[in-house]
Amino acid sequence: MPLPVEFWPVEFWFEFASSYSYLSVMRVETEAAQRGVSVIWRPFLLGPAFKAHGWDTSPFRVYPLKAKYMWRDMERRSAALGIEFNRPPPDKMDTFPQFTVTAARIAIIGLDADWGKDFCRNVCRAEWVDSANIADKALLAKLAVQAGAPTNIMKLASHPDAKLKLRHQTERATKLKIFGAPSFTVGDELFWGDDRLEDALDWAAKS
User: Fold this and answer.
1) Residue 28's CATH number
2) Model confidence at 19, in pLDDT bands (50, 70, 90)?
3) I need a surface site. Which of 35, 81, 138, 193 has the fewest CB within 10 A?
């Protein structure tokens, strides 16, 4: 029997490759706490979601003007929110969006424990403040252990169970018609974009 709407939490769908997901990762818990709303973090991969909608790559790669706008908008929005952000230097710009599969697997493991959210924030700061390569497994291991992960985390992340969990989560995102990140779902309602974070939380709070 379906739960009443008032018991539905906000599901927070994010991708480490998404610049706007960074802003939501850094502030979603504070905003949710102010409203008494619970949030379930759902890392997933945008690539398969794009393919499900007939897109071969990120729209920011297809439309250079949109990418140019996004970088400037990130600078403005992060400053307005008081979140540190540094645009990647020109010699690293071609590496964005980054390969995020391993980071997402680790995040799913950590979110089943008590260190996942700190790991996600560590990864986002490394990527969007330090312009670090978050596909670097040594860096990911360091960031995970700093957050409280066991020292064998990379072995756990390469286990078939971790791969299966990420695939299932990404498939669910596609079934929910999620086409971008960050996205927020409250029951059957979908909210897309960091600028809709408050709307999603308010919807859950008043339902």
Assistant:
1) 3.40.30.10
2) very high
3) 138
